[in-house]
Amino acid sequence: MRHLSEERIQEYLDSSPALDRLEIESHLLICFECREKLEQYKEIYGSLSLDSVPVPDDSFNLNILKEIERLEYKKASRKLIYTISSLATAALAMILLSLFGILNWQALLISVKSVTAKLLSPVFDTASLVTEKLNGNLELLAFAAAALLLFQLLDYGLVRHRIKRI
Amino acid sequence: MNDEHQLIRSILEGDKKAFSELIDRYKRLVSHIVFKMIKSNEDRQDLSQDVFIKVYQNLEEFNEDCNLSSWIGRIAYNACLNHLGKKRAELWDDISPVLSIDTLPNSDRLLDEQIATGDMANRLRDEISLMPAPYGVTIALYHLDGLTYEEIAEVMGMPDGTVKSYLFRARKLLRERIEKKYKLEDWKQCGT
After folding, report:
1. Nearest-neighbour CA in chain B from A43: distance (Å)
2. Predicted-complex ipTM score
3. Residues B149 and B165 in one domain
């Protein structure tokens, strides 16, 4: 008599749809050896479903949420520092260029305006107005830098607000 | 939109409780993978935590047509492999078609101790710990988490047939090792 392979016994217990269950059951009725193996596998299957590892408690969740908040805060801080330092570098470069007479803000604004006048005329009208009112390169730079800084701070504030909600 | 998709949306909108709920749903699955792959208790705790941080950071990229448990399982499994670094190669060295009962470390001492405790589940747990880690992972995912061959294959990044083969060989080894030490009657006494 040909015995059932261990794979077929396991497939029988796994309820494999490809298996001819009737054929297996007929064999099991007349074969003590295969029946014994089946019982052994049943014991193993039953015990394997009882095996468990310690599952972390609620403090695990809290630690993860705290760590996420810390990482988000760190990321936002890094972004702010990067933005401030970039702005400071750009402002310094512009100031130096203006001081040495390499960059003429009024001329630059006029030439840019002529190219993009149709698309951005309202923006440059405002810019020209501001330039006229401030009447000086450094004042304009300071104004632009302050506006950007304010925007970044607002953005940073929104990120912080989002982190608090998490 | 099902409950799981709603949960993901809530997390992406910044809902703290929703992410805590996701952790509750999947920490058992992650623990099963991490505990089977990593030996050090301290590393297990840190790694499980890192897995959920990665899940949070990458949730935006999750494709909702995919299975969330497989996706999280995959992150956990890859995190374990990365943690093992150079040692990961050793995991696969042990898995060869000729792996047999004689190639596993002897656990007679453990088995003798367990006769006294009479606990088949503990006996099997120790036997599994002596096997190559991926065997333990496939057994845990199949028998404890109820994942299908396809889902386990997705987690472990291998073909379905390989997963089926691991499971078959692992359970065969378990049966042979237990049979070598005990008769069926003893098994039943221990199992009850």
Report:
1. 7
2. 0.75
3. yes
